[in-house]
Amino acid sequence: FSPGLLVVAGSFAAFRLLNRGLERLVPPPPSARRNRWKWRNIWTSLAHSVLSGGGALAGFYLHPDLSKDLVGTHPPGAHSLVAVSVGYFLEDFVDMLCNQKLHQSWELLFHHSVVIVCFGIAVLLHQYVGFALVALLVEINSIFLHLRQILLMANLVHTTCYRLNSVINLGTYVVFRIATLAWMTRWLFLNRENVPPATYAVGTVGMAIMTPMNIILFYRLLRSDFFK
């Protein structure tokens, strides 16, 4: 029994409680009251992105040598941060499954399944935690993706705040999402002889799924916010 599973369970419960209490903390505007669960869901996701993205960025800033060994070593707290993220993705998976129709959420459910499996391996084996931490850098961009959804739901599309967020969102998308995934794919390819075949297969399949999904989302954002 891995202590990491306790962190996963605690994280799941904590994000579930946060989700339930967010409507009181951040009351939905009139334009979002028809979809209250989505309002709570996005704010919960934003909280996770700030925590995990900020934590991953701090980890690489404070431990610059971490990128030299993404398999066996990691800074204190990195394993717990990855376990916390597994708990969040499980909570978000359950939340969408209970509140949204499958044809509307299948892409995110599929994405979450891949992340849970890959991060779960890192948590259980205490291996590849550094690699998972690289993946969490993606959450820096997710902060602005979630802010975009909040502004859309609050009917604040035609504001300076939305336009500014759109520019930052696109910039961080290229730096922290597309470039990060490309770096991870390159790392897997260069280290294929040092990674067990099963783990290499899981990582390769994960990258093969994530890369086209993120390119499609980038195109949708570009078309929606800049090429209307």
From TrEMBL:
One of its GO terms (biological process) is regulation of membrane lipid distribution. The chain crosses the membrane at residues 42-62, 131-147, 167-189, 201-222. GO terms for cellular component: plasma membrane. Coiled coil: none annotated. The keyword Membrane applies. It is a multi-pass membrane protein. It comes from the Eukaryota. Keywords: Membrane, Transmembrane, Transmembrane helix. The keyword Membrane applies. It is found in: Membrane. Residues 34-228 form the TLC domain. This is TLCD2 protein. It comes from Smithornis capensis.
